[in-house]
């Protein structure tokens, strides 16, 4: 349900901000604020999630996400004036929600089923991305833009509100232990600790995500000037991703992670070559299909291995909240680096046709470095079980 709400409006939010402001920089600052506040929320809310009720954190995240779309709806075009505060609001919502979600995810999975679980999660996410953006694009197109955006923001706010109500039927999960504020820093300072390799690999993942999460959809719109085409793009690429997540989730085993992640890293980097052709809907669609097809080969081994590392011993499993926050800190650092690179090249975008594809290649090749850093951990931290799960 929440994936559907995000897919309905999240795909088109950067388009709405750009159409209203005509500013690429504003979109960058909105996303930079979102990522920074989300990462900070993870760290600050860690004590609440570990020592009190993590489900309330999840509910608050859903509520804030719904409130964000409601505020954007009320502000209309003046929302661009408050892009940074709005980025902080959605960052808060994402931080509270994903902190609780990732902790619960760790508790209900273990090394033997984590690849399959991630495959199903990716499949469901792709499923939400198939229909929702297509419907949004269609609604925006037939309602002449502004009214269509109002409709999809309204629907998203309502879906989030329903999600808050339904969350009260979720089982309350037991909390235990005392939150250690500087646990992650101690891990990175400890000689021989595997997190000294895992953390920079997670940063590499974040560098790519920081730009690709918002810029691909914007490029599709700029190439077509049509929200309906962006909806079709999301539909096609999500269909491919759904099939890929399902197949790879079924076939991937811990001992195959190293090879799978390398193939995925090389393949998603190779697909960026299509962006050096003249920018068009066709070249972007080829790029999108290639990315959707091969990204699961990279992301499933990466995610499963990091969470296996969290549960590699009984002691580390007891510190699951702190490790989830350490993981998010890596993603946050990487995303900020990615958006900073985007902001730095903005003044040069009009000077050459190769600035945009050059940026996409520069940040998009980081998964290869991520694999190199993770290669010694892939498939080797699966012996432990999540003793602390309930």
What does this protein look like?
The model is unreliable at 382-390 (pLDDT under 50). It is built from 16 helices and no strands. It has one domain (2-169, 180-374): Growth Hormone, Chain: A, CATH 1.20.1250.20. The two termini are 25 Å apart. By secondary structure, it is mostly helical. The chain has helices at residues 2-10, 13-21, 24-51, 54-75, 83-108, 114-142, 146-167, 183-189, 195-224, 227-251, 257-270, 281-310, 314-318, 320-345, 355-364, 366-374. Keywords: Membrane, Transmembrane, Transmembrane helix. This is MFS transporter. The chain crosses the membrane at residues 24-45, 57-76, 82-105, 117-136, 148-170, 197-224, 230-248, 260-279, 285-310, 331-349, 355-374. Its main location: membrane. InterPro entries: MFS, MFS_trans_sf, Sugar_transport-like.
Structural descriptors:
about 400 residues, mainly alpha, Growth Hormone, Chain: A, disordered C terminus
């Amino acid at each position: 349900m929440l994936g559907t709400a995000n897919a309905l409006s999240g795909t088109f939010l950067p388009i709405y901000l750009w159409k209203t402001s005509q500013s690429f920089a504003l979109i960058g600052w909105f996303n930079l604020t979102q990522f920074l506040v989300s990462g900070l929320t993870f760290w600050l809310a860690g004590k609440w999630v570990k020592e009190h009720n993590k489900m309330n954190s999840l509910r608050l995240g859903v509520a804030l996400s719904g409130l964000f779309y409601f505020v954007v709806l009320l502000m209309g075009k003046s929302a661009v004036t408050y892009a940074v505060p709005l980025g902080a609001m959605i960052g808060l919502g994402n931080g509270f929600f994903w902190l609780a979600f990732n902790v619960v995810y760790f508790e209900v999975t273990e090394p033997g089923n984590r690849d399959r679980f991630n495959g199903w999660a990716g499949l469901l996410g792709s499923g939400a991305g198939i229909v929702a953006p297509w419907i949004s694009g269609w609604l925006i197109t037939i309602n002449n833009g502004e009214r269509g955006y109002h409709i999809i923001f309204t629907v998203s706010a309502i879906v989030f509100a329903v999600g808050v109500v339904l969350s009260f039927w979720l089982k309350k999960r037991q909390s235990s232990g005392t939150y250690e504020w500087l646990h992650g820093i101690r891990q990175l300072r400890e000689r021989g600790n595997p997190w000294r390799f895992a953390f920079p690999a997670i940063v590499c993942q974040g560098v790519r995500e920081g730009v690709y999460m918002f810029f691909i959809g914007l490029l599709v719109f700029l190439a077509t000037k049509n929200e309906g085409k962006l909806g079709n793009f999301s539909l096609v690429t999500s269909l491919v991703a759904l099939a890929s997540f399902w197949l790879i989730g079924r076939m991937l085993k811990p001992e195959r992670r190293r090879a799978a992640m390398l193939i995925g890293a090389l393949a998603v980097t190779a697909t960026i070559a299509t962006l050096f052709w003249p920018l068009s809907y066709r070249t972007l669609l080829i790029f999108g299909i290639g990315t959707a097809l091969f990204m699961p080969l990279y992301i499933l081994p990466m995610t499963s291995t990091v969470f296996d590392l969290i549960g590699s011993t009984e002691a580390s499993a007891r510190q699951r909240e702190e490790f989830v926050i350490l993981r998010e800190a890596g993603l946050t650092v990487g995303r900020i680096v990615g958006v900073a690179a985007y902001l730095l090249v903005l003044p040069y975008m009009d000077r050459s046709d190769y600035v945009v594809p050059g940026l996409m290649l520069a940040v998009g090749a980081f998964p290869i470095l991520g694999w190199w850093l993770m290669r010694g951990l892939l498939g080797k931290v699966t012996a432990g079980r999540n003793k602390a799960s309930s």
